[in-house]
Amino acid sequence: MWLLVHCVGSRDEKVGNHYCSKVCCVTGVKQAIELQEQYPGVEIYCFYMDLRMYGEGFEELYRKAQEKNNVQFIRGRVSECLKQSNTPFS
């Protein structure tokens, strides 16, 4: 199982980030597809606040990740990540 966390600190006024880079979403989706192609059958979850797929063809890439590569996208804010005992992070 692979977990990709998007939007870490972006648009968080509490830490002085008032903008979105517009790069991380597309890069994360591409990485999820590459992981799925390199490790067929592995579960991949992408946690995000708001996906912004700027640019031509990127919305289709997002759909491909869901439909062809079975990447699961979960909207929300990750508040904490814990390691399960005897289970290494991938």
The whole-number mean of residue pLDDT values reads 84
Percent range of helical residues: 25-40%
The unreliable regions are none
Number of helices: 2
- CA(first)-CA(last) distance: 7 Å
User: Order of strands across the biggest sheet?
Assistant: 1-2-3
Q: What is the strand tally?
A: 3
Radius of gyration: 14 Å
**What kind of sheet is the major sheet?**
3 strands, parallel
* Form type: flat
Helix-strand makeup class: alpha/beta
Give the ordered list of helices and strands. EHEHE
What fraction of residues sit in β-strands?
5-15%
Keyword list:
alpha/beta, three-stranded parallel β-sheet, 90 residues, 3 strands, flat
Structure description:
The chain has 90 residues and is an alpha/beta fold. Helix content is 28%, strand content 14%. It contains two helices and three strands; from the N terminus they run βαβαβ. It has a three-stranded parallel β-sheet with strand order 1-2-3, covered by helices on one side. α1 links the parallel β1 and β2. The longest helix has 15 residues. The radius of gyration is 14 Å and the shape is flat. The N and C termini lie close together (7 Å). The model has no long low-confidence stretch (mean pLDDT 84).
